[in-house]
């Protein structure tokens, strides 16, 4: 049996590119958001709620808050694992991220993003739509 945290987590393994680095060969801080996005994309796919499915259900989910703690510099041409974990979903979508060195497992970055449901034709929702929460609940039930 899978626990809830594992059920609501997904990861992406990436190798950082030269184009992601600053002149010192270290990944530029703004590029971390692309890594978070890739892990979040995998997570939403696991929930059967991809960005196309979000749009088809009548909602957009803009990021309204993001926080990052840069623990250790990541050089270019370095293999990392980005783990995304859904920790809130009833009123907003909060995803926590951890970037670890793929070889050693050493933590390099931690972060989170917050997204809210916005109806494509109207305004922000104060609670997540049932079309999304039902998908989360189904995944949790399947994991237990």
UniProtKB/TrEMBL annotation:
UniProt keyword list: Hydrolase
GO molecular function, one term: fatty acyl-CoA hydrolase activity
Signal peptide: none
Spans traversing the lipid bilayer: none
Pfam families given in the database record: 4HBT_2
Similarity comment: family membership: Belongs to the 4-hydroxybenzoyl-CoA thioesterase family.
PANTHER family: 4-HYDROXYBENZOYL-COA THIOESTERASE FAMILY MEMBER (PTHR31793), NOVEL THIOESTERASE SUPERFAMILY DOMAIN AND SAPOSIN A-TYPE DOMAIN CONTAINING PROTEIN (0610012H03RIK) (PTHR31793:SF27)
Protein name, entry field: Acyl-CoA thioesterase
Organism: Photobacterium chitinilyticum
């Amino acid at each position: 049996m899978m626990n809830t945290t594992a059920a609501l987590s997904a990861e992406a393994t990436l190798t950082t590119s030269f184009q992601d680095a600053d002149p010192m060969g270290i990944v530029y801080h703004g590029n971390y958001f692309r890594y978070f996005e890739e892990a979040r994309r995998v997570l939403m796919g696991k929930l059967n709620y991809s960005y196309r499915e979000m749009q088809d259900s009548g909602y957009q989910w803009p990021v309204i808050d993001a926080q990052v703690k840069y623990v250790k510099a990541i050089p270019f041409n370095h293999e990392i694992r980005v783990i995304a974990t859904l920790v809130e979903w009833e009123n907003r979508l909060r995803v926590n991220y951890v970037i670890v060195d793929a070889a050693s497992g050493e933590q390099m970055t931690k972060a989170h993003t917050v997204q809210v449901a916005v109806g494509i034709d109207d305004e922000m929702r104060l609670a997540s739509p049932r079309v999304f929460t039902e998908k989360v609940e189904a995944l949790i039930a399947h994991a237990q």
